[in-house]
Amino acid sequence: MKTATEGSQAIAQAVTMCRPQVVAAYPITPQTHIVERIAKLVADGQAACEMVSVESEFSAASVVLGAAAAGSRAYTATASQGVLLMSEVLYNIAGLRLPLVLTCANRAVGAPINIWNDHQDSMAVRDAGWVQIYCTDNQDAVDTTIQAFRVAERLELPVMVCVDGFILTHLFEAIDLPTQAEVDGFLPPYRFSRALDPASPRTLGTLVTPAYFAETRHALDAAHGRALGEIAGAADAWSAISGRESAGPLRVVGDEQARIGVLTLGSVFGTLLEARDEMPELGPLRLMALRVFRPFPVEALKAACAGLSDLVVLERALSPGGGAIVGTEVRAALSEMATPPRVHAFAAGLGGRDIPLSLLPRLVAAAGAETPTRFAIIDVDLDKLAPEDR
Amino acid sequence: MIEVRIHGRGGQGNVVAAYLLAAAVIRGGYHAQAFPAFGAERRGAPVVAFVRCRERPILRRSAVERPNFAIVQDPALLRLDATLAGLRDDGALLLNAGREAAWNGTSAAARWVGLPATAIAEETIGRPIPNTPLLAAFLTLTGLVPLDALTAVIDERFDAAKAAANRRAVAEAAARVDEGAWADLIHEKQADRVRETTGQGR
Prior knowledge:
The complex is a heterodimer. Chain A folds into two domains: 2-242, Rossmann fold, CATH 3.40.50; 250-389, Rossmann fold, CATH 3.40.50.920. Chain A has twelve helices and 15 strands. Chain A has helices at residues 7-17, 32-43, 57-69, 81-95, 120-124, 138-155, 180-186, 210-242, 268-278, 298-304, 326-334, 359-367; strands at 2-6, 22-25, 50-53, 74-78, 101-106, 131-134, 159-164, 172-176, 250-254, 260-264, 285-290, 292-294, 310-315, 342-347, 376-377. The model of chain A has no long low-confidence stretch (mean pLDDT 97). Chain B has a single domain, classed as Pyruvate-ferredoxin Oxidoreductase, domain 3 (3-Layer(aba) Sandwich), CATH 3.40.920.10. Helix content of chain B is 33%, strand content 18%. Chain B has helices at 14-27, 81-84, 117-124, 131-142, 147-157, 160-176, and strands at residues 2-9, 31-36, 46-54, 69-72, 92-96, 111-115. In chain B, strand 4, helix 2 (81-84) and strand 5 (92-96) form a beta-alpha-beta unit. Chain B is globular and about 35 Å long. At the A-B interface, strand 1, strand 8 and helix 9 of A face helix 1 and strand 2 of B. Strand 8 (172-176) of chain A pairs antiparallel with strand 2 (31-36) of chain B, so a sheet runs across the interface.
């Protein structure tokens, strides 16, 4: 049944339908509406969970870490500097192999302070060991949130569901919300094999010497290796219930004959799809949304790029001094192909700058460049900068 | 695509107006989206929200640059260039021309209608919240969706007393404007109508 609602309200509804036992969060724009709504559902008696208001994101992450370790299904949400303040705990959660779900309402990271959307926050914790899924729209956010708990609990890995701040969190549109029975049928009660229990004492997170540390890292990486299959399985199982298409790690739309592809993450995918529909003169194109960024879906990406001469990677973050983050990974992955496409890497939409439909023809034009762009930020107004920074 | 930009001040229910309008047009069979212009909101500051609607699903998540319609909740906002910037030449302006000084009508928009929405709200709701009277006038002028769609979403959003007061505001505002005067500006109507409804409230 479709309900006209704001993205944050829908995500909050989806979270409570997953019956978390503990939610801990600290409010930060643009995540606020999600946790406000969960708090209200709890206060109104419509969600039976412990809602813990904490004094910082560090504490929010620590509370859900403890809750998950004690065998509770737990959830938190944050954004921007909040992700960074959590970062130490995020590494601990993944290292301890605790199943948790976190919504990142993607926002730029200061300084300068900026409340608007880009992906710098979640990219900053790319290597923390969390699964990262970038949602293309609010229906995707609802469906992915529900699947995330199952993926997390089956793999004993934390899952970060990345949702574009404001652009999706504050967007009001019609969304198909599942029924409680549908979610209950999909998501069994949480049972944690290593739950802390005074009746059977054990230690979690003890000192690990050089003799074992590399093995823990290997295990974490190996769990990510299994995650793609688990994510696909969850997507198929949820698709059977929801009736919606099963979302793979990489959403590919477009022409099999296309020679030019554009790969992006998050909500800009819809904008590019509409631009393609409105501009048939651009010729055949293959558009891709990289939904699952961790684990990185190398094989799916290679398959999706078969036959392409050029791939433009458009991302909403960068590694200063290094250039593209996603673009560099894509380039590395595709180098395994016999005839890889040339990769042109761009960042756009930083700190909330709009990405209009008119960007697509420019990306297509960039794909025809004699020399591929290793990395560039689109539309930087150099006149605003000191001469040495131009 | 029909794009509407709603201007107001923090505390006037500007975002609520956009959400109500989107909910009403979805109920009326369109696909729609609404979103605020995101900023550091505070009471009294100029704020903006947007509504898009059309027959087909809307996939774009980009900003509205060239709205077909502007709804302005406070006439003093016309002093800001941004208030009418980008409004289409073949678009129209709906202005809360309450007790403030009358607007002289100079705009890129060829057509405009003034409504004493604050006065209507004070009489019917008892508070100077002009958003629902303006939405009622907008739907009456354009015929985009029946007024029933708006009253239905009002009933869903507000408690019984507030809903009843807002219904009175809607009826009063609708009676003050020419029904269908802007119907020619709604090009989407001629396209295939989406029969899918949201199922809300059923």
